[in-house]
Every structure is written in C-alpha cells, then in structure tokens.
C-alpha cells in the first residue's frame, strides 16, 4: 500500500493545545475573561459580555422580567438568529409564566421553553462560542449558568445548478455556501450511518467550520488520519474558501497541477466517497475538496457514469487526446514551422507558406502573441461584468480572428491552432487542471522555438517526470498508467459498464475492495430461468 | 539499501525494453551487416541465447543474495578488497557506457537534425534531465519510463508502412558463409542487461524478476530482428555503408501521399529511448558509486556525477569515426567481460562457497 504515513505529526489534541500564532493576540485575549465562570450576578455577567462585544452594534440585549420578579436577559446577534422564534417560543412563554414555576435553567428547558436545541452554559467562552454560531443566550438573575438556545437562522442561497460543472444528464443541484445544507445533501444521497462527518473549527478569527466526510469501512483509516492530522496542523487567521486549505495540505506545494479535486456537485462527491476517498467541506464555499486524486480523476466528468459506456469511453479518449493537444499543439506547430518543414506534406506546406508570406514575425513570436492574447481574453471573460460580455466577445473574435489575419499580423493557420488549443483545454472537466496544462504550454513553446522537436520532447519528458514525482496523499498522481494494473483500466482508459466495475480503485479502496456482486450483466433470458 | 522506493517486475521489464534498444537499434545494423553480410538479421538468435544466460546468472545471484545489489554481494562473495577493485572496474564501465551513450545520442541529433547546435548543449540537456529524474529515485524512473514507452514503440510500428518496398530476395542466400560471421556480428550489447543486478533488489515481487527480464529479452530480440530485417530487405547490402540505416528507413516511408518523411518520429523515439537509457544507467552508476564508498544515500552524488559523464562523453572519442572503431573492435570484449564473464565467475564462487563453507579462503585465492 502506498499511503505515506506521517502519523508522527498526528495528534488528536493539537487543536486544543496549539499556541497562538500572534503574541499580541495572546495578550489581548488575556484581558477578556474568556474562560472564567459565569457568576450568579446578572449585571456582572451582562457587563462582561458587553465588554467582550464592545462596539458590536449587532449584538442585541433584551432585558425582561419573568413572572414579575426574576430579571432575565436575552442576548443574541441580529441577522444570524431567528428573532421571530425568540419572541414566540422563548420570551412569550417566559413572560406568561406563573410565579409558582421552577425557574432554574434546566427546568426551564424541560417545562417552559419550546425550543428544539438548548444547552446549559456556565463559562463565558461557551457563551461567545454559541453566540457567534447564531444561538441565543438566556441569562437569569441569581443563576451561575445560562442557556444557549438553538435559534440560528440566516439568509441562504437557493440550490442552483453548479456553474463550473455543467452536464446534460445528471442531478442539477450543486452545493451552496452553507455547510449544513451541503452535509444534508450528502446525507440525503448516502443514508448509511457509516457516512461520518467530523467537524472542526479552523481559523483564528473566522472560526470556520470544516467537515471531514468519509465512509467508515471504505476509506482507509490511515488516509482519514492523515487528512485529519494535516488539517489540524493549519494555523491561520481565516479561511474564506477551500482553496486556502488546498494549498495548506497538498503534497507538492510548488507543482502547477492541482492535487486535490474541487467540485460543486454532491453526486461527484458521493461517488468519490464511495470509492474510498475523503471529502473536505468548508463553510462559506460551494467548492468541496476531495483527496486523494489522480490525473485521471481530473479528466473524468460526472456524466461519464450516467450515459452509455461506449459513448463515455469514446468521449474519454477524445478528452485525453485533446488534453495532450492543449499542452503540445502550439509547440508542435512552432517546432515544425521553424525546424522541421519537411514533416509537412508538400501541398499543405505550399498553402501554409502562402498564408505566412505576409506575416512579419517568426512563428515563435506569432504563437506567443496569439496565446497570450487568448489567455487575456479568457481572463477578461471570467472577470467582466455580464453587461459588457457581448462587447468583449465581439472585440475578441474580431481582433484575434479576422482583423489580425487581414492585417497580416498573424497567419490563418496560427489562429486555427490557437483556437483548437483553447477549446481543447476547456474539454477538461476540471477547470483548474485545464489551466495547469494551458500554462505549461508556454515553456514548451519556448523550448520548441529554440531546440525544435528535440526541445519539445525534452520538455514533455520533464513534465512527465514531474507528474511521476507527484503524490496526492500518498497516491501517485499518474498511478494507473505509470504502474500498470489491468483492473484499473476499467475506469481510466475505458469506462467499463457498471456491471463490470465490481471493485473499487485499488489505490483508495483496498479496505473494502468489492463494490458490488459480480455477474450482474443483464441477459434477455435471465427472467425466464 | 539506497532507497525505500519499490517497483514492480512488470515496470522493470517495461523500463528495460527502451533501455536495451535505445542506442543499439540505430547503430548496430550497420556494424552487424559489415560482419555478416545478408545474414546479420540472425544475430537475434545469439542475443537471445546469451541474454538468457546473463539473466539466469543475475537472477540466480539475486536469489542467493536477496535485497542486495551487485556491489554488495560481490563483497560477500570475493571479499572486501577484491570486490572494491572489481566494483571500481564496474563504476568505470558504467560511466564509460553512459558517456558513449550520450555521445552517440548527441552525434545523431547534431548530425541529422540540429546541424549548427553545439554538441555540449545537447549533452548537458539530457544529462540534466536525467539527473533530476535519478534524484527522484527508481520509482520515478520506472513510472516515467512506463508512460514514455508508447512514444518509443509507436514510431517503430509506423515502419510497417514500408511493406510495399521490401524485397525478400535480399535475405537470400541464408548462411552462405556459415555461422561464424553471425557470431562476430552479435556485438554483445545484450551484456547491458547487467543493470538488472541493481534493479532486482528494489522489486516488490522479486520472484517475477526472471520472468519479466525474459519477457523483455524476447521483446528486445523480436524488435531487433524486426529492425534488422527491415534494413536488410529495404537496403540490402547497402546497410553496411549507412551510418544510421534506421534513419534511412524513416525517411523512405511514403504512404498515401500523407505519411512521408517521418524522421521526426525517429527523433521522438530516439530522445525518449535515450532518456530512459541514460536515466537507468545513471541511476545504476550513482548507486554503485555510493555503495563503493559505503554511503547511505546516492542522491548527493547525482549532479557531480553528471559533470563527469559529460566529460567522459567528450574524452571517450575524438570524433564519430573513432567511435565507430571502438564499437566494432573493443566494445564486444568490454560487454563480454562485464556482462557475462565476471557475473559467471561470481556465481560459480558463490555456489562453491555455499556448498563448502570451510573452503572459503581457497576459493578466494582461486579468483
């Protein structure tokens, strides 16, 4: 097994013990009585919380009196707490309560308050923790403990089709920014209690919730432990997107290739979990990380598994071919045009020479110019506001295509090459894997223009060697092609029909190798027997 | 052990295929044809014979001393000091072969494709690339070789397009001068199989080592015969006067008015094959040097050794014709000695020592 073990780093309690990364922080935190107990004097407790949340206009203190005698305070943060719920289910019953009732917090929870989730809190740190997660804190006079009531409610985006991964067939809902919605989507697909969702908080200031999802008994225990330990090692101010985590836990931080899969689709995530991989869900982003992955994972689309296997297999071959083309095509063109004209058949050579006649630049400059402007157009296309999109596409098409050729600045074959390259890089289902290949073609163009085909091949060898050194959580990046295992080809080079995919991928799913019962090939006469 | 990486026997087999053929397929048809005339395509028979003997010896030695390289078990077999001397010879042989390989590689590139590029640039670029790969370990070499092998094999299959131009009459008459010219033409480059003595210890399934090596040997012999036959049937007696007959083959292809002038494909397979050959040889040289010096890790040697390899390649031969003379005259004996004779002696001594442990000292003096 190739999972690299770094369990010496692993320590379950690292999170609690870890030192703060700013010394100043420690001092400022010392002033706040974070970890002192609540006292039995209400005013003092409210004052302390007020000090901690000084100049925080969104924290609301609602003073009222229960049964005409006991003073109480409701503290909550406006916007992330359900105000209507507080009025209806907490304040209203308390105001109407009889004198004779028992007003100790635990009794309140049992008898008076109609709230699904409530917890007793006795320390200020707990109060702050719950407040920031949208709970309402109820403090009573003469009580050294309060109640945290689960009234969290904030604005959520509706479920939409994922923008970056579209498909014709398959589920149309994507993850959203809300962590709990995302985990609920996973739970809705995988109902087994073996789907484990471990939560941890990362980020000194953001305290972002992160969920580590895996299926117990399928994901290898050492892999889960490795991911967990790498997550626990993170010490950072804030985590705003899963990209932060990706860069902090990947194996080869300098590589241009993404070593974790990011996906917006619950079906892709579930499929990965069922193959023994681990998913990392981050609060505040619809992009979920999946590890470990190989280069072939990057080239598989969700739809491959939903349509007929012949079509999927041929689509995959097309995709492989064009992903290699997106890396090498302009470089091959430059090399052939600069050094190896004899490779081109005679009649084609004549027409290419005719189209290049008026072009004042060498092929290298021409290629570089066109590729850079294509990249610029692509980047502008991503950033620009929707209203000006039409303008850019018209200008881009005109400038890069028609006008440049007519002006004699570039040759028509070069425009074709650049267009094919650009389109083929978008055939890669994972956008960022495609970007890596697209960026690597620039060094290849330079090599091809200096050493011709020789330089190009040396460059390709260098890229292959680099990819062979890559590992994603111990799994070799090119695993199934660089270590030939025949059973792996069923889901890399081909897409075998489902009745043939009886085993999980051998690099991630060895704990529970068999995926389904064999001999499920449907036959016409099976029903009669 | 020099490293923790492990490769599978199949990977070793795949890696050895371009390693064995890389330089040889391009140069040896000429030399073989000079010795054996129209019978040189029969050399494959002797290659197979001697190759199997070499593989048998090396896998047998590996079985006697598992998890050890040639450098390590030779110390156990003939004692520390004689082994150090012997291994210095091998180290020198590896460096010399590496130098010769990259020189041949660079001479072909500058002689047929990049006429005005300084040869040093070609030499340094491949050594640098190989050095980076070697530093990553045997696993990375094996994995990249596995991925690159199709680039080595596919151009060879394209030579099938020559079929309409082949003339079977060039092959006749068979063995008109007897078998001796064929033996002379064999050239012994199959002795390069000695490198598996440094790869077998890192196999994850050592019991399949022999099977994989024999598989590779068969593939190498079949491919070699295929190339030799193509050269013979297309060029006939002219094979012996061409410097690179396979290059002529690739240029000759003309099919359907589209597949023409495919020498660029030859360049692709040449670079890929030479890269794998250099990387494997380079790795073996680094490991043997580290073990010669009793060091734990070979990685710190890799770049300095690369400098030495480039220098060796320039020192070895003043020019291409001197290189040709060397390969015709001295090379077979060098290969015979390092590939067959020394391992055979080591095996015999090892077997004798196994049988009669009390007569150890006698055996050592015998050698």
Automatic annotation (TrEMBL), chain A:
It holds the Pfam family GerA. Residues 22-35 have a biased composition (Basic and acidic residues). It comes from the Bacteria. InterPro entries: Spore_Ger, UPF0353/GerABKA_families. Residues 509-521 have a biased composition (Polar residues). The chain crosses the membrane at residues 317-339, 388-405, 411-432, 444-467. Residues 12-35, 509-529 are annotated as: Disordered. One of its GO terms (biological process) is spore germination. GO terms for cellular component: membrane. Keywords: Membrane, Transmembrane, Transmembrane helix. PANTHER family: LEUCINE ZIPPER PROTEIN 4, SPORE GERMINATION PROTEIN. Belongs to the GerABKA family. This is Spore germination protein KA. It comes from Paenibacillus phyllosphaerae.
Automatic annotation (TrEMBL), chain B:
It is a multi-pass membrane protein. InterPro entries: Spore_GerAB (IPR004761). The keyword Membrane applies. The chain crosses the membrane at residues 7-28, 40-58, 85-106, 118-138, 145-166, 186-203, 215-235, 264-285, 297-315, 335-352. Pfam families: Spore_permease (PF03845). Keywords: Germination, Membrane, Transmembrane, Transmembrane helix, Transport. One of its GO terms (cellular component) is membrane. The keyword Ligase does not apply. GO terms for biological process: spore germination. It is found in: Membrane. Belongs to the amino acid-polyamine-organocation (APC) superfamily. Spore germination protein (SGP) (TC 2.A.3.9) family. This is Spore germination protein KB. It comes from Paenibacillus phyllosphaerae.
